[in-house]
């Protein structure tokens, strides 16, 4: 993705050149630009775009330029989409070049018409929206999808989200969210891929590929927006919008790579974060937005703020007033102001006062117009507006089937005593709990245009698949201390062979502005599980939540525990598939589940310390009142069958930086049914110039094995996989010994020792 001038492209198509020349002329005349054929992707690429944009910018007033740097939200009411009167006028006057939360073909067409018919330069609007895990067909929340460890499925999910969003008039999604987090108190962990940097980077790339498809010129692609840059997932004590204070080493090693991976995968835009980092709010940080993002990572798209993050520089205490905040943000590297209207109100004054330069404004505008160009909006501003396509694609059978597939793959089996699962279809099931007959919570937070009425509840899913009886009782509400329905629930349990109890969080409890200090089940849900367990019936706990929970008692009482997160539109069907054994669960946790809030932050790739944990020695790194180990480790998840791992072997014990090292293990399905195992490769660098984690994930492979079948699983490692920020902060490897672990979770697997020679 380089937009620099490349003369070889010019020789490829003189016809394109003519079109460019014509466009320049048309732009000069200030007319709507609608040539029939115009190269969007491929040849000649962005040299033509730059010429086009330059000729357009030559016609623009400063106000119109600042308008392109201004993004406003429209509203949505029960009756449908609405827009504040002033915004229409802003579009007409060229004071606003982009809108978000505006969707549906009818609504976006109407607004686009104002821009391209009634504004002076007829520059098309850019429509953005938070399409995070589906547009109308809602897929599992991103954290759940990450638990599938299936990059193809994750990419397909984003592809479908983009296809639907584009069919509803949208050009741009505020996703993927790639913030690494080690703190489940932070509610936004539901939007990301969990705690691991390597996995988070792979998921980030897959999502960008999915959203942007075969190129932004296509009608089914939307531009991605990597967020929230940077380190937003590490606020102190997990408190939303809080300060981030970490070493530069940790930042670069654990938090930065997923943003860089998404950008290298071609993400068109980046969103700043609300937090400060090392004393400077990200939205005003020249270091983050220019030195690291542009100069180091090489990002060439545009940067949008997160909501009113420019205005918030005043509250952060780094700007006297909003005008100064705007100057700081522009100078730092912000190109577009979301909703705060700071650029719109003050930037011209700042320019006239000599605080910012026209060249700085031009740089931002050019980046924004280039994206509109790449999206093909100058060629056809209505290319996303096809009522037929919208009708045909949203929530179509194919998309629902993909959502069901993704949902089944996202489920993690955490416990299964006495093989209580899978259930017999003939079983008498008591389905209990506040989330048993619920639809409203299942699509989770950030569910775009998703309608919970389109969602399949667990009750519906079980009834559709059962050949026995499903007795339903709510038991209690999600919150509050009312236990009056416990008796009815117990009566239902007594009539059944097995109890399935669906408990968890309300959707609003995870997501933005949803930090929690307790990680237990809210209200009296834990008491409900306990009461049902006391009946002596086997109890299958189905968890629906957006973050790791600390629920050791629930796990102890339950016969089986199924982590179902929020699975989206097809939740009930997917859960029935797993509970009845139609699909053998294969998900693994992308975040550590703690025993208690006191263990948080908790993550698998910790350091050894000088006094590593020893249960029998007080003077080691530990708690007096809890083991160090989590409730469930990162990477953990059971299957209905069992897998056995051989000791890993390596192609060579010693290797040089130019060698590829092969690490193999034989995995056998030692039970039944057929199942998929996520085989994980971790390494430990035994001695370094700085302390290294006890384990680092370096690869995964999903293998599907029939009963009794075994297969060799091989990973290839090179010196590049061993690099880290050394003592002098250079990034590279160091010769020495490494232990390689291959296993079924971060807490499992045998190791083999290898040595990297200089
Ligand atoms: C969130 C962003 C989101 C934006 C627009 C903000 O409050 O932090 O993630 O993209 O709103 O909806």
Kindly describe this structure.
With 758 residues, the protein is an alpha/beta fold. Helix content is 31%, strand content 18%. The chain contains 23 helices and 29 strands. A hairpin with a 2-residue loop joins strand 2 and strand 3. The structure holds beta-D-glucopyranose.
Task: Identify the notable features of this structure and list them briefly.
6-stranded mixed β-sheet; binds beta-D-glucopyranose; alpha/beta; globular; 758 residues; single chain; 23 helices
Widest β-sheet, arrangement of strands: 13-18-17-16-14-15
Mean pLDDT: 93
Largest sheet: 6 strands, mixed
- Total helix count? 23
Bound molecules: beta-D-glucopyranose
Q: Distance between termini? A: 35 Å
Helices and strands in order, then pairings?
Blueprint: H1 7-12, H2 14-29, H3 46-57, H4 62-68, E1 70-73, E2 75-77, E3 80-82, H5 85-92, E4 98-100, H6 105-118, E5 126-129, H7 142-146, H8 151-167, E6 172-173, H9 197-212, E7 225-229, H10 248-255, H11 257-264, E8 269-272, E9 276-277, E10 280-281, H12 286-296, E11 302-304, H13 312-316, H14 322-332, E12 337-338, H15 342-352, H16 358-374, H17 387-393, H18 397-410, E13 412-416, E14 428-432, H19 458-465, E15 469-473, H20 486-494, E16 498-504, H21 525-533, E17 539-544, H22 552-557, E18 560-563, H23 571-579, E19 643-645, E20 649-650, E21 654-655, E22 660-669, E23 675-685, E24 696-705, E25 710-718, E26 724-725, E27 731-732, E28 736-743, E29 750-756
Parallel strand pairs: 1-4, 1-12, 4-5, 5-6, 7-8, 8-11, 14-15, 14-16, 16-17, 17-18, 21-29
Antiparallel strand pairs: 2-3, 9-10, 13-18, 19-22, 20-22, 22-25, 23-24, 23-28, 26-27, 28-29
Helix pairs in contact: 2-3, 3-16, 4-15, 4-16, 8-9, 8-17, 8-18, 9-11, 14-15, 18-23, 19-23
The structure holds beta-D-glucopyranose.
